[in-house]
Amino acid sequence: MASTGELLTPQEYIQHHLHHWQMGAESGFWVVNIDSMVFSVVLGTLFIWLFRKVAAKATSGVPGKLQCFVELVVGFVDDTVKGIFHGKNKLIAPLALTVFVWIFLMNLMDLLPIDYLPQLAQLVAGDHSQKLRIVPSADVNITLSMALGVFFLILFYSIKMKGVSGFVKELTLTPFNHWAFVPINLLLETVTLISKPISLGLRLFGNMYAGEMIFILIAGMLPWWSQWLLNVPWAIFHILVITLQAFIFMVLTIVYLSMACEEH
Q1: For 7, phi and psi rounded to 5 degrees?
Q2: Which residues are identified as catalytic?
Q3: Confidence at residue 3, expressed as pLDDT on a 0 to 100 scale
Q4: Would you say 253 and 92 are in contact if contact means Cβ atoms under 8 Å apart?
Q5: What's the pLDDT at 264?
Q6: What's this model's pTM, rounded to 2 decimal places?
Q7: Spatial distance between the Cα atoms of 137 and 104, rounded to a whole number of angstroms
């Protein structure tokens, strides 16, 4: 990577790769990470298009490789939902499938060579200072926004299943069922409730940011001819990490909504 025709130092290289392509940074009030938005939308659209295409061409005979793969993913998610969520809700299984595949695709971007797309963006923009980060799940704004969506569903189903009065009682009369402990109960239950989306979003962000950082450090600190000695083993291990993080986000989403849908 170069800036104004000169090679970047390792520190400048790492700093460059940790900055987003942003809009509104000059104002300092409302900043949009364009790269995270674009890649997350494109990957979500790819997921919908691919699964819809397979569903439209599905056959009862011997399935093709793509149909077989999609059926395995759908069956895996369906079995996971049945094992955790014991109520009846038509939203949970499609939501779990969407969460798992979408996050997996966003995490998968971390396995692309760290410089290819950023250099392509610089070439297209004609600007050596052009920045681009390609892993949406390494952006805390993306992970917390997804967790916030789950949080709204938790509130919606909690009120729908228990009613407003039942939800308020759950916050004020548990774990200590006495009016004198209402302030303590409210504090404990509010912290528990708010911690769900925060931990859900920060867990995914932290793991993916750390994985991206390791790739950047390898690329920034080692000569190009020796990088494969660390990149390849880390990439192989990282396949497990990106899959596990998508699975954990999906499972916790199901668990939280299952708890919200319980009448008592």
Answers
A1: -70, 145
A2: 199, 203, 207
A3: 42
A4: no
A5: 59
A6: 0.91
A7: 9
For residues 19 and 194, give the distance between their C-alpha atoms in angstroms, rounded to a whole number: 29
Structure token pair of residue 111: 């396995």
Give the β-pairing of 22-23 and 32-33: antiparallel
pLDDT at residue 37, rounded to an integer:
96
Cβ-contact 198, 147 below 8 angstroms: yes
**Could you count the other beta carbons within 10 Å of the beta carbon of residue 264?**
6
Cβ-based neighbour number of residue 243 at 10 Å: 15
220 CA to centre of own chain:
26
Nearby residues of 198 by Cβ (< 8 Å), 6 or more positions away = 144, 147
pLDDT given at position 26? 67
163 Rama sector, left if φ>0, alpha if ψ -120 to 50, beta otherwise:
left
Mean pLDDT by 10 residues, the chain (264 residues): 59 88 75 94 97 89 87 95 90 96 97 91 88 94 96 94 90 85 92 94 96 92 84 94 97 94 74
* Euclidean distance between the first and the last CA atom of the chain, given in angstroms as a whole number: 58
Which among 109, 134, 137 is positioned nearest to 119, based on CA atoms?
134
The per-residue b/e assignment along 156-176, b for 16 or more CB within 10 angstroms, e otherwise, is ebbeeebeeeebeebbbbeee
- Separation CA 74–CA 227 (nearest Å): 37
Amino acid 203: pLDDT = 96
> For the chain, how big is the Rg over CA atoms in Å?
22
Q: What are phi and psi of 32, to 5 degrees?
A: -115, 125
Distances (CA, A) of 9 to 16, 66, 88, 115, 117: 10, 44, 57, 15, 20
